[in-house]
Amino acid sequence: MTEHAGTNGGDRPLRIAIVGAGPAGIYAADALMKSDVEASIDLYERMPAPFGLIRYGVAPDHPRIKGIITALHKVLDKPQVRLLGNIDYGTDIDLDDLRRFYDAVIFSTGANADRVLGVPGIDLDGSYGAADFVSWYDGHPDVPREWPLDAEKVAVLGVGNVALDVARVLAKTGDELLPTEIPPNVYEGLKQNKALEVHVFGRRGPAQAKFTPLELRELDHSPNIEVIVDPEDIDYDEGSEAARRNSKQVDMVCNTLEQWAIRDVGDRQHKLFLHFFESPAEVLGADGKVAGLRTERTTLDGTGNVKGTGNHKDWDVQAIYRAVGYLSQNIPALPFDEQAGTVPNEAGRVLLNDSADTPAERFLPQTYVTGWIKRGPVGLIGHTKGDANETIACLLDDASAFTPAAEPDPEAVVKFLEDKGIPFTTWAGWYRLDAHERSLGEPEGRERVKVVEREDMLRASEPNKV
Ligand SMILES: Cc1cc2nc3c(=O)[nH]c(=O)nc-3n(C[C@H](O)[C@H](O)[C@H](O)COP(=O)(O)OP(=O)(O)OC[C@H]3O[C@@H](n4cnc5c(N)ncnc54)[C@H](O)[C@@H]3O)c2cc1C
């Protein structure tokens, strides 16, 4: 056993709590286990199941991405890692509790809310946050089971991958999505979807769109979706040309959009329009409900930015989805930058006082962040690996100065949770839930059917049983 410096010369593994069992937290556990320090890790998760936005964000028709879960299994299968699910940091356990049981705490709580969009009328009935809709179609237990899909024409605001996910799911038919893992309530909801036109709006131009080429081209693969781009929306300035030269991805996105702009429009049932240079100015309402969208035409200013032209256009839509970015929640007992939506940090060390010189005054001791809560809600799953490596390198640099935990015995925290009566789930419980979901899919030849209700997830996981 490696001696853990900082534990009074003790001869025990470093005890680490990681709060949030999404990709960032799991990669952090992996990085710790690959270091030459012996660590014993507990991964806390507020949901009964792990994997964060891979389970509750990635679109159901992206099975290859959902398959990253298989690689993450290898980390959680290791005996040095325990999953403690269905435990909400801030409600069930706090920082003082964690300090009792662990030498260091890493927060990887990600992001799950919608960034606010300040446009008049945005709060009308029929204006929805993308994060809420994503949670619905991905079977998140904490959102309503039904979703109103009675609009024939829908607007999606934003030109990132989440906007494309939302637009694609709205434009596909329920039957097209049935082979995926969507739960029965989502299939029933999507079957009733009346949307015939989905309009995606970007404030800037094709070279400023944030989607990845693969995700963009995928729109065209549906036998039910006609993707339409107006040739008038293809425009570049010097800044845009530079962006194309500097990024192969940007250039590929522009090439795809150009091809779509010049082809004939086919007769697939659902039309998905990608509009550029249209800045949302107002959501129009009637009887408290969305009745249209007013946009202002913009034009490039030479640098890749845009300015308004004063020309407005009204679009006949009855629902609006805001896909302008995710936002993290503040974490009790940690500083929080409301503007950035992140925990202030330096390479993962939680920053308390920017102007202090000594580490003791500068940082919240023995506390770290990784993933979207560290960096902000941008980037793919793979990017959280680099975050984790950087954070773990800092933690290991600091470890020799750690004040050791008072109760490092791994059983002590289990007793604490049991005494509080928390029905926590475990990694063995995930295997049971996973087998249950697969068995639900089997009769229909589907890989799995997701269980939605928290109670049902708990029942299948058999809490408190390792
Ligand atoms: C709609 C959508 C689609 C996406 N699609 C793709 C894609 O196709 N491909 C791709 O590579 N990337 C995709 N991404 C990006 C990817 O999901 C993120 O890069 C990644 O999930 C960020 O990882 P994270 O661990 O930081 O956060 P998260 O995945 O959000 O994980 C955080 C975890 O912390 C838990 N948690 C939060 N608060 C607490 C608390 N108080 N107590 C206990 N636990 C808590 C949460 O429940 C969650 O499980 C998508 C993102 C979104 C939003």
Structural commentary:
- The chain is an alpha/beta fold and 466 residues long.
- It folds into two domains: 14-112 and 328-422, NAD(P)-binding Rossmann-like Domain (Rossmann fold, 3-Layer(aba) Sandwich), CATH 3.40.50.720; 114-326, FAD/NAD(P)-binding domain (3-Layer(bba) Sandwich), CATH 3.50.50.
- 33% of the residues lie in helices and 21% in strands.
- The strands form four sheets. A seven-stranded mixed beta sheet has the order 3-2-1-4-18-17-16, with helices on both faces.
- Helix 11 (238-246) packs across helix 12 (248-262) and helix 17 (427-441) crosses helix 18.
- It is globular and about 70 Å long.
- Residues 5-9 have low confidence and may be disordered.
- Bound molecules: flavin-adenine dinucleotide (FAD).
- Flavin-adenine dinucleotide is lined by residues 19-25, 44-47, 52-53, 57-58, 62, 65, 88-90, 108-111, 134, 161-162, 165, 326, 371-372, 379-381, 384.
Query: Strand order, biggest sheet?
Result: 3-2-1-4-18-17-16
How many β strands by DSSP?
18
**Hetero ligands:** flavin-adenine dinucleotide
CATH class of the largest domain: Alpha Beta
Proportion in β-strands: 15-25%
Give the name of the CATH architecture of the largest domain. Answer: 3-Layer(bba) Sandwich
Number of domains: 2
Structural class: alpha/beta
Organism: Nocardia vermiculata
Family: Belongs to the ferredoxin--NADP reductase type 1 family.
Binding site for FAD: 24, 45, 53, 372, 379-381
Binding site for NADP(+): 203-204, 215, 379
Secondary structure elements and pairings:
Layout: E1 14-19, H1 23-34, E2 39-45, H2 52-56, H3 63-66, H4 68-76, E3 81-85, H5 95-101, E4 104-107, E5 113-114, E6 127-129, H6 130-137, E7 153-157, H7 161-171, H8 174-177, H9 184-191, E8 197-201, H10 213-218, E9 225-229, H11 238-246, H12 248-262, E10 270-275, E11 278-286, E12 289-300, E13 306-315, E14 319-322, E15 326-327, E16 345-346, E17 349-351, H13 359-362, E18 363-369, H14 372-375, H15 383-398, H16 410-419, H17 427-441, H18 454-461
Parallel strand pairs: 1-2, 1-4, 2-3, 4-18, 6-14, 7-8, 7-14, 8-10, 9-10
Antiparallel strand pairs: 5-15, 11-12, 12-13, 16-17, 17-18
Helix pairs in contact: 1-15, 11-12, 17-18
Bound molecules: flavin-adenine dinucleotide.
